[in-house]
Amino acid sequence: MTPVELSRTVLRAVRCAVDAGELAAPVPEWAQVAPPGPGGRGDYATNVALQLARPAGRPPQEVAEILRPHLAGAEGVAGVDITGPGFLNITLDGGGEQALVAEVLRRGARYGFVDEPTGDLVQLHHPREVRAAVTAQAVARILRSQGALVRTSCEDEPDPTWEAVLGVSVDAHGRPGAPAPLKVNVRPVPAVQDPIPLGRDAARWALLHPASHDHPRITAEHLVQRETNPLFRVRYAHARTRALSRNAADLGFTSAPGDVQGDMTHLVDALAAYPRTLATAARHRAPDRLARHLVTTADAILGIQHTVLPLGDEKPSAAHRARLALAEAAGTVLAGGLSLLGIDAPEHL
Length: 349
Prior knowledge:
This protein has helices at 3-19, 48-56, 60-72, 96-107, 130-145, 160-166, 200-208, 230-251, 265-284, 287-304, 318-340, and strands at residues 33-34, 44-46, 77-83, 87-92, 121-126, 149-154, 172-173, 182-185.
């Protein structure tokens, strides 16, 4: 069961409790599931009981006790424990990591995207400033990944070099026409220096990686090919996942989602959190949250890359195929996230 499927399962449990008259509260549109925090257990945890406590007029622990049997009886759920103030800790009926990896590989670049349009209409309006233009375009892509219909507009005609070098485009410029139901003014702290000399990928990263309220650093550090450069780590990690697939093919085996042995927790957690990261980045109009998550994912795959392929005379096993599938899933997330930021994900680096 994937995190998205588990979230739907949690919502069905809430709906069952409401329909049975056990709980008087509105069913939320989304139930957050994530790896358990300190003191937790199982494969995933949800705070839905804490979320429903106030509208239900009951303590979170009591809400959790009501939801527990409905959730424990769901297909694919092996057990449910309650910890802390009312967290529901869910143990899946085997194959949680395998299902996650299979889901990432199946959906490819659309992993983390919502399946249906939400009907939300958003207009992103920004001043004639390069960081605002790049940010608005990245936010538009992230919002579209979450089902919104988005239109971008600039206060004045954009600098043509922004499109030529940075790939920036807007739908309209000048005074906005008929207002959208939701108009958002995109006004990050402007870039003091010209990012154009950095080229497309490094310039976009330099503008998008810092939070919108932070000053971007437009320096040649973004071009350095070493581990101190977060952009290099992300792109290098993606290239390494592709190299692992090529090297595995040379050894005569391919990937297959399965039980990944060894300490792969950080990477599995990063993959599971990616859809939630996209949703949060869309909600807060914050591409920097996506950029930082890509760095986390890159560091996780770089930390285990040397355990993926057989060593020496070792023969490829099911564990190697499972670890290769996990690495390929990480590469898929890195490529998809970079694409949303408008940055290339090279096969070789």
